Amino acid sequence: MVKAVIFDLDGTLLDRDASIEKFIEYQYERLRHTLSHIPKESYIARFIELDDRGYVWKDTVYQQMV
Q1: Which residues lie below 8 Å from residue 31, measured CB to CB, with a gap of 6+?
Q2: 49 phi and psi, to 5 degrees?
Q3: Res 10 pLDDT > 90
Q4: pLDDT tens sequence across 25-55
Q5: Long-range contact set of residues 49-58: C-beta below 8 Å, sequence gap at least 24
Q6: Closest-CA residue to 53 (of 21, 7, 13, 22)
Q7: Would you list the domain boundaries of the chain?
Q8: Based on the number of CB atoms within 10 Å of its own CB, is 47 exposed (0-12), middle (13-18) or buried (19 or more)?
Q9: Residues in CB range of 40: below 8 A, 6 or more apart
Q10: What is the pLDDT, as a whole number, of residue 41?
């Protein structure tokens, strides 16, 4: 039985910015052979820009990344 649900709308419990940056770094490293023509910093910055702090659906973000 669920006794509580916690929402972290302001980043108090989880630093979303740091989490998404680490995720994108990991993703870039896994796809490095495909993305080697794109500088890592540019890839990360572009994803963060398109993600708009999580307000844009990820399928839309990835379509715009291509």
Answers
A1: none
A2: -60, -50
A3: no
A4: 999 999 999 999 999 999 999 999 999 999 9
A5: 51/20, 53/16, 53/17, 54/16, 54/20
A6: 21
A7: 16-65
A8: buried
A9: 25, 28
A10: 96
Residues in the chain: 66
Per-residue pLDDT, 12: 87
The distance of Cα 24 from the centroid of its chain, to the nearest Å, equals: 5
User: How many CB atoms are closer than 10 A to CB 24?
Assistant: 18
- N- to C-terminal Cα distance for the chain? 43
Q: How confident is the model at residue 11 (pLDDT cuts 50, 70, 90)?
A: confident
